[in-house]
Input
Amino acid sequence: MNSVYIEITNVCNLHCSFCPCGTAAGNETAAINPSISANRTFMDSKLFDACIAGAQEIEATNVYFHVLGEPTLHPGFVHYIKKLEQTPLKLTLTTNGTTIERSGRQILASPAVRQVNFSTHAYAELPRETAERYLQNVLDFCQFALVERPDLYINLRLWNVGAKEASPWNSYMLKRIHETFGIEVTPGHFCSRHKSFNITSRLYLHEDTRFEWPGLDERTGKALQTRDESSSTNSTSSSTSSQTLCHPKDSIDRCDVEGSNSKIVVGTCRALDTHVAILHDGRVVACCLDHSGQITLGHISENSLSEILESPLAHNIRDGFAQHELRHPFCQNCTFCKRFSK
Output
């Protein structure tokens, strides 16, 4: 296993329609699943130390500082980077870039930071003046990084291909990239196997389609929807509603240690193979998209990460992936894992 996602906070300063952090601002979703909107908090230092120890114990080489949330908002963000510098672990930082003007110097100064991903698609939903200011700060950071940290990988993410509001913003962003770096990037030939486009050195534009955050309504067992999904009638939403739905209360029975499952759903995933995630409160979950802990395997303050990964539930889910079986209801309602199913 290469990576551990450590959600150092589930707090975010944006309210994007495609993200549970944004959806949590709506009363309807909060009523359906209170775990999405409740207990917005920051991971404490003791818990973070346990996460880092666990990552080293399983010989991971890379950590992330998110599942949900904007990691640079954590009051101890710089302190946690310093802790990483005392280990062999490297950080891939995914950020919305809104704080990069104040946090950029510390990020560039740390040898522990291997890669920075900027979620610039989030700006498409902001007032234009605000979006342009944030983008300028990100591009300024990139220019500094090219000089001061030529070893640093940077991805400018546009994970909104096909979204209705994306085209004007994406066109503007490509224009600003051209003006800033003198490179004209034309990612019109985007496809599932060609998503990354080099701008210069280790700076890339990375395109992708939106994905639906998986989750189950605790009352009905149906997949949760973000704001833009609930108001949309596109084919992606339709395909979700046609999937086999299981109530989360059935998850232990349907996904027990014997591997018995009343209904087999074909599919696979890289969860518990390439990565595992730890939420802000210490719950260890199988998947980097399981922001509400619906596949909780254990708690990092109660057991070591290696012990948790050897639990019967973890083994059963992992064995299912190896056999192209989605055994847990959460996985059965996930559309992201279809990217790995061939």
Residues 25-37, 223-261 have pLDDT under 50 and may be disordered.
